[in-house]
Amino acid sequence: MEIGLVGLGKMGGNMRERLRRAGHTVVGYDRNPEVSDVESLAAMVDKLPSPAVVWVMVPAGDPTRSTIGELKELLAEGDLVVDGGNSKYTDDALNAASLAEKGIGFVDCGVSGGVWGLENGYALMYGGSEQDAAKVMPAFEALKPADTPDGLVHCGPKPGAGHFAKMVHNGIEYAMMQAYAEGWELLDKTEMVENVPEVFASWRTGTVVRSWLLDLLVDQLRADEHLDAIKGYADDSGEGRWTVEAAIEHAVPMPAISASLFARFVSRQEDDHAMKAISAMRNGFGGHAIKKD
């Protein structure tokens, strides 16, 4: 298929490459002319056949809203916009309704895979009508992990279903990383255990706590056993907050995820030892910046 891709950063750039490797034609636009295929959104749209499909991978909030607003003026009835960024699910209904005024379809898609998605594929959680999703399905199939039926799921027909699922995924991720980090801090501070990196490495095979996050943490600990080079500070992307807000709205108790979110807030007031491990894991899967100690 031929597809437009807006936003060619760490995720978008790798997605463009994975789509091209699968034989698809991608016209990419980015404000950075060094990575962009065209000089403007309008030029990108002009190169696409009708009906046009444009995938947006820009930061959530105003950047996404303004980009979709510009595309509304450039696209025509029957075209499709896919929001693959980390938008808040409540934005999707508004964007879908706005585009529908011109007969433009909308699909929201939560994308997980970080900087490793180029080689491993991306987990894709999408929302919207089956009719709209069909227009972008060849791209979905190319981006998802190969040789498995998993990794691609239609979360529901309502706009925002995909981003809601991705939001909960990220909330769970917060709690998992917090548990690993607290366990590491205890092992690192005791004199009872001498080889902490290899203890964590031993958990990667046969235990119930094995995971990709654990793999990433082991890599970081083997390179810097006490994570001395990393400051105990971790940002939050916003999705942990939204998960807790949704839990409050629906009266769903979330003690572990809430605590992991508040722990990140604490790290911004004082250097938190456990947060070194979370910062290391975030850098490992998403290329998120770390603060050097």
Describe the 3D structure:
It is a single chain. The protein contains 12 helices and 7 strands. The longest helix is centred in the middle third of the chain and has 29 residues, at 161-189. By secondary structure, it is α/β, with parallel strands linked by helices. The radius of gyration is 20 Å and the shape is elongated. Strand 1, helix 1 (10-21) and strand 2 (25-29) form a beta-alpha-beta unit. The protein has 2 domains: 2-157, Rossmann fold (3-Layer(aba) Sandwich); 167-286, N-(1-d-carboxylethyl)-l-norvaline Dehydrogenase, domain 2, CATH 1.10.1040.10. Keywords: Gluconate utilization, Oxidoreductase. InterPro entries: 6-PGluconate_DH-like_C_sf (IPR008927), 6DGDH_YqeC (IPR004849), 6PGD_dom2 (IPR013328), 6PGDH_C (IPR006114), 6PGDH_NADP-bd (IPR006115), NAD(P)-bd_dom_sf (IPR036291), Pgluconate_DH (IPR006183).
Question: Brief description of this entry?
Answer:
It comes from Nocardioides jejuensis. It is built from 12 helices and 7 strands. It has helices at 10-21, 41-46, 62-74, 89-100, 117-120, 130-143, 161-189, 196-202, 212-223, 239-249, 255-267, 273-286, and strands at residues 2-6, 25-29, 53-56, 80-83, 105-112, 123-127, 152-156.
